[in-house]
Structures are given as C-alpha cells and as structure tokens.
Write a structure and sequence with these properties.
alpha/beta
C-alpha cells in the first residue's frame, strides 16, 4: 500500500527504508532537504510540504507522524486535519503522552479522519530486526493500516492492544520497565567493577551471560557491545537523560496506587547521574546510545547535556 512518513529522523528514516524493502510505496517528508533527498535516493517519493504529502496519496490516505512528542507532533497533526478527509487515517508513532490521544482522536473524528496511536520500539536496530508495535485505535482505522504494521514488525511483534490511547499507554509502561532493566544491569556491573581482588573482565562476563543465562536479553547484548575493547566506554560521561516516559510511568503508578519501586528508583538514579561519576551511570548512557542512537557526552566533547 501507499503511506506517507512525516519525520525522517533516526526512526522515521529507517522505517521508511523497511517499508520500501517490503514493497510498499512511501511519500516521505521532513523539514530537512537532505533527509528528503536521502529518502528519495532509497526509493521514496519526496514531498516538499504537508500539502504535497496529502496530494500524493490516494484514499484512504494514511499518514504516519514520527516526530518528537508535544508541539512538533501536535502542530503537524493539526495541519493534517485541514488537508485530509473522511476515511483517511493519521498514525502517531512517537512517544506521545497517552492522555493526549483521545482528545486528538475526537478532533480528527469531526472531519471523519481516523487516529491510531502506535507505540513503537526497536530504536536504530528496527531496520534490520523489525519494530515492536503496540497499537491503539478503532478497529476500522487499525485495519486500514495493518499491512504497514505487519511489514514493520517482526513475526509476532505487532498487536492491536486496545482503543485509542492504549498503544501509547503500553509503550509508556514498556519504557518504564526498560529503565528498571537497564538500571539492574548497570548496578550489577558496577558491583563487579569494585571487586578488585578478582580483576574481572566485564566484557567477557557480559559476553558469556548472553548464552544460557537466565538474565540474557537484547539489552545484555548491547551491554556486551558497549563494554567491548575499543568501543569508547571509558570516555563516556555518566550523564543519563530521561525521555519523559519513565516519569509518566512513575506518575501513573502513584495515581493508580501501584507499588513500582524499581521503576521509580531507576528514574531517580538518572536524575542523580547529573552530579555523580560511576561505571553504572556510564553504562546506562552507553545503553541508551546502543539501542536508540541517543547522543552521549564524552570527556572530549564538553558542553551541556544532549538528548
């Protein structure tokens, strides 16, 4: 099918490539002329405006918005509302707050436009490994978009999890869990780094734990990559940014009276990273870079925090 991808950053550009590789047509738009040119070189139809995006699609038109949460996403969808019509669908694939989904869907519904919130996980590795998709929305809107979801996700990695807002809610909790898992790995390797009497090879340990161990995971594979000789781990500054979804998960736990000490503590640990120096915090920063391509600070870079 034919779909538009609005936002050609680390995620949107790779998703565009994966869709093209699976035989779909993609109309690609980004404010960056270079990003548009790169997408065109891979086979996408580059659009030079949102108006051009709408004009290049055929009903039912599907537009995937893959932009930072907040105003970049909301203002883009507001513009699309005036360009799309009855039966068309807008997908928000960013890390938007789930509480914004229902009002957004209601506004679009006034024009007969469907809205789907697609929690998207996979980071910079999604191009080759596929993206886990947690999708919320009305069944009729999701059905229109389903060929796209099946192309982007690996086998078994896509589900329609509930009504509008459910996709972003599940992705929010997913990221909260991610915080806790990363923190546990970071603390464990910090403890081992302090066992001077054993002179432990942390990279070796991360490597063997990937095989047969009950703590093996993709995050552990990325830990092994981060600790590999020559990977630059020792040059990283222990400054760990939080994306917002960990905060939202902690707030939800409080509002729903659900004890979530691991997620809350892992969030607070990130706050503490701005004033501390430890192997654990450097490893957290390295893991964010490994799975999501998030910027890190190194001893040679200086300057303020990047996210």
């Amino acid at each position: 099918m034919k779909i538009a991808m609005v936002g050609l950053g680390k995620m949107g550009a790779n998703m565009t490539t994966r869709l093209l590789e699976h035989g779909h047509e993609v109309v690609a738009f980004d404010r960056s002329p270079q990003a548009r040119a790169d997408a065109a070189q891979k086979g996408a139809q580059a659009a030079d405006s949102l108006e051009d995006v709408a004009a290049r699609l055929e009903p039912p038109r599907v537009v995937w918005v893959m932009l930072p949460s907040g105003d970049p996403t909301n203002s883009t969808i507001a513009t699309l509302r005036g360009l799309l019509s009855d039966g068309d669908v807008v997908i928000d694939g960013g890390n938007s707050n789930y509480k914004e989904a229902a009002p957004m869907a209601a506004t679009l519904a006034e024009q007969g436009i469907g809205f789907v919130d697609a929690g998207t996980s996979g980071g910079i590795w999604g191009l080759s490994e596929g993206y886990c998709l947690m999708v919320g929305g009305a069944p009729e809107s999701v059905k229109v978009c389903e060929p796209i979801f099946l192309a982007l996700a690996p086998e078994g990695g896509y589900a329609h999890v509930g009504p509008v807002g459910a996709g972003h809610f599940v992705k929010m909790v997913h990221n909260g869990i991610e915080y806790g898992l990363m923190e546990a790995y970071a603390e464990g390797f910090e403890i081992m780094s302090k066992a001077d009497e054993f002179s432990l090879d942390l990279h070796q340990i991360a490597s063997i734990w990937r095989y047969g161990s009950v703590v093996r995971s993709w995050l552990l594979e990325l830990t092994e990559r981060a600790l590999a000789p020559g990977a630059g781990f020792d040059r990283l500054e222990p400054y760990v940014v939080d994306s917002g979804e960990g905060r939202w998960t902690a707030v939800e736990a409080i509002d729903r009276a659900v004890p979530a000490p691991v997620i809350a503590t892992s969030l607070f640990q990130r706050f503490g990273s701005r004033d501390e120096d430890s192997l654990a915090l450097r490893l957290l920063a390295a893991l964010r870079n490994q799975f999501g391509g998030h910027a890190v600070r190194s001893e040679s870079s200086g300057g303020g925090p990047k996210s």
